[in-house]
Amino acid sequence: MKTGYARVSTDDQDLTFQLQVLTEAGCKKIYQEKVSGAHTKRPELEKMLEQLREDDTIIVWRLDRLARSTRKLLEIADKFRNAGAHFRSLCEPWADTTSHAGRMVMTVFAGIAEFERELIKERTSTGRHLAKKRGVKFGRPSKLNQEQKNLIKRLLSEGESIKNIAKTMNTHPSTIYRNLEI
């Protein structure tokens, strides 16, 4: 079955043109919504994805109606593939998984996106490592200042229990243990 998906970003915009071209493309059912593509909650898209069946073909007027980024497009295309469904964009003829060439192009895009994610992960990891070497501290700021940390060390050396120190400092014992490592 050919199923269409039409989306506009605001209530001021009109779906008429998309509905017309999707109907002309042979879509028997068209999911339509007026919501920004930046929103993670798109109920009609989710409903369409839930109802996908093998050999269905999802048709959109343009790719940007389905996804705002290559990564999101590939995630959605992967859901189509897992359901055994196909995908086709009317304005971008290369985005057509009903053909061998279209499937190859989508596979190449998926490879490029994966390569890009790995590069980003590597750069982020390298940046984090270099920042740690420079003394940058990650995570939440310490609940205790240096004076309080010194007091904890002194109280421990005097034989005070962690539990009592935590009560005195109005904090949890795990905070005291965490600060012993510093």
TrEMBL record:
One annotated GO molecular function: DNA binding
SMART domains hit by this protein: Resolvase
Membrane-spanning segments: none
GO aspect biological process, one term: DNA integration
PROSITE patterns in the cross-refs: RECOMBINASES_1, RECOMBINASES_3
Pfam families xref list: HTH_7, Resolvase
Active site: 9
DNA-binding in keyword set: yes
Matching InterPro entries: Homeodomain-like_sf, Recombinase_CS, Resolv_N, Resolvase-like_N_sf, Resolvase_HTH_dom, SSR_resolvase
Keywords linked to the UniProt accession: DNA integration, DNA invertase, DNA recombination, DNA-binding
Gene3D superfamilies, A to Z: Homeodomain-like, Resolvase, N-terminal catalytic domain
Boundaries of every Resolvase/invertase-type recombinase catalytic domain copy: 1-135
Superkingdom classification of source: Bacteria
Entry-linked PANTHER family: DNA-INVERTASE FROM LAMBDOID PROPHAGE, SERINE RECOMBINASE PINE-RELATED
Family indicated by similarity: Belongs to the site-specific recombinase resolvase family.
Name of this chain's protein: Resolvase
Organism: Candidatus Odyssella acanthamoebae
Lineage: Bacteria, Pseudomonadati, Pseudomonadota, Alphaproteobacteria, Holosporales
